[in-house]
């Protein structure tokens, strides 16, 4: 899994602890959804990289956090994202769209105001195991 680190304002974390926002809202806020920011760019870049081996020119669109759980005692949790991979195969001028979901574990280090996401990597097969 690829790990990506994001900083966040202490005020957002306090809102999570005080139950003014839930874990899904916290993750969405840190990522900058729906408006976007460099955090969102880092996530979409990793997702594009994971889908690059499938051909075409993948673009990540319609990304949203659809579920999240956080355990404040352990300072860990997971969230689920939904997104669409749009591809354009220039040689054949064919376009495709595929909907994907990913479940990503995360850790929070409150003293450093740091959120560490673990992004699942694309599984590739080796023909040696198919014989």
Q: What do you see in this structure?
A:
- Helices cover 24% and strands 42% of the residues.
- It has one domain (2-123).
- A hairpin with a 4-residue loop joins strand 4 (94-109) and strand 5.
- Mean pLDDT is 84; it is low at 124-131.
- It is an alpha+beta fold and 131 residues long.
- It is elongated and about 55 Å long.
- It starts with a strand and ends in a 12-residue tail after the last strand.
- Helix 1 packs antiparallel against helix 2 (23-31).
Stretches where pLDDT falls below 50 for ≥5 residues?
Answer: 124-131
Major sheet: 5 strands, antiparallel
Number of domains: 1
Instruction: For the record, give the distance between the C-alpha atoms at the N and C termini, rounded to a whole number.
Output: 27 Å
Strand order of the largest sheet: 1-5-4-3-2
Helix content: 10-25%
- As a percent range, the share of strand residues is 35-45%
Beta strands, count:
5
Order of helices and strands: EHHHEEEE
SS element count, helices: 3
Structural class: alpha+beta
Rg over alpha carbons: 17 Å
Overall outline:
elongated
Average pLDDT works out at 84
């Amino acid at each position: 899994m690829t790990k990506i680190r994001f900083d966040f304002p202490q005020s957002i974390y306090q809102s999570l602890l005080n139950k003014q926002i839930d874990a899904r809202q916290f993750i969405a806020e840190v990522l900058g959804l729906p408006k976007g920011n460099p955090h969102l760019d880092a996530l979409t870049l990793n997702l594009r990289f994971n889908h690059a081996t499938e051909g075409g020119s993948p673009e990540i669109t319609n990304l949203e956090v659809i579920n999240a759980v956080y355990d404040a005692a352990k300072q860990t949790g997971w969230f689920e994202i939904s997104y669409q991979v749009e591809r354009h195969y220039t040689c054949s001028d064919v376009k495709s769209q595929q909907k994907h979901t990913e479940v990503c574990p995360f850790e929070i280090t409150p003293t450093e105001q740091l959120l560490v996401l673990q992004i699942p990597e694309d599984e590739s097969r080796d023909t040696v195991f198919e014989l």
